[in-house]
Design a protein that fits this description.
The protein is of the alpha/beta class and 239 residues long. The protein has 7 helices and 12 strands. β8 and β9 form a beta hairpin. The radius of gyration is 17 Å and the shape is globular. About 4% of the residues have low confidence.
């Protein structure tokens, strides 16, 4: 179970992933954070040649490899979360995935009451087995249990089991910056158009839902405070 919530500073991609990996040694802490500069993260086994590195450099964005699975994500105007929870004979990785999403959707409903926690028809193994523009991004697929507005994902998550502990982290879309991923991938113009279209159809941010700008830092503070209050657990700030 989640035993504490921590608000962290905006950090580089390398720093964020190093801190997330260390959560394995302090299970139960839900870390909420942002990125500076914006950063593309690749899944643990994803080929880095998917990125157009020249364009990425021109934009001043980081690139990092996540310790978990999944596909590429542009961490832009979002809240990122990470937590490590131990497995037992009665708690499976899928149970952790569902539990964490239940915690998140309860807090996010304070922004958008219409958000739902739903069962999706597409499984992650099926998605990872596909290739091409549609499969290049985490936000073009749904797992078994997702946080959605209608049929569009608001949160994208990934997992990895390390020493009988599940490390799970994901992106809570506050603004539409994640859509810019399509412009820094090594794709043909036709593939780029396909990916942009699929990203728009399959994902949506709080700003787009509410039709007004939602500040990332203010949203992070509110989500963290709501989770702390809902679970009756401490709220901490990174030093």
């Amino acid at each position: 179970m989640i035993t504490s919530v921590m608000i962290d500073h905006a950090r580089t991609g390398q720093d964020n992933m190093a801190i997330d990996e260390r959560l394995i040694h302090s299970p139960g802490t839900l870390r909420l954070y942002t990125w500076k500069p914006w950063c593309i993260s690749l899944g643990r086994h994803q080929n880095e040649t998917v990125i157009d590195d020249k364009t990425r450099h021109q934009r001043g964005w980081d690139v990092v490899r996540r310790p978990t699975g999944g596909r590429a994500v542009l961490h832009a105007d979002e809240i990122t979360y990470a937590v490590a929870l131990p497995l037992t004979d009665s708690i499976r990785a899928s149970d952790v995935y569902e539990y964490v999403h239940q915690v998140l959707v309860t807090a996010l409903k304070e922004f958008v009451p219409e958000l739902t926690f739903t069962t999706a028809p597409t499984t992650l193994p099926h998605h990872y087995a596909t290739a091409g523009a549609v499969a290049a991004s985490c936000f073009t697929s749904k797992a078994r249990t997702e946080i959605v507005f209608g049929q569009q994902k608001v949160v994208g998550s990934a997992q990895r089991i390390i020493d009988h502990t599940v490390l799970q982290h994901g992106s809570i879309l506050v603004g539409p910056g994640h859509l810019e991923l399509a412009n820094v991938l090594a794709l043909s113009e036709e593939e780029r158009a396909v990916l942009i279209n699929n990203l728009r159809q399959s994902s949506i941010s709080l700003t787009e839902i509410l039709n007004h700008h939602v500040d990332v830092d203010e949203a992070l503070q509110k989500v963290a405070t709501d989770i702390s209050s809902n679970l009756h657990i401490p709220l901490k700030f990174a030093v």
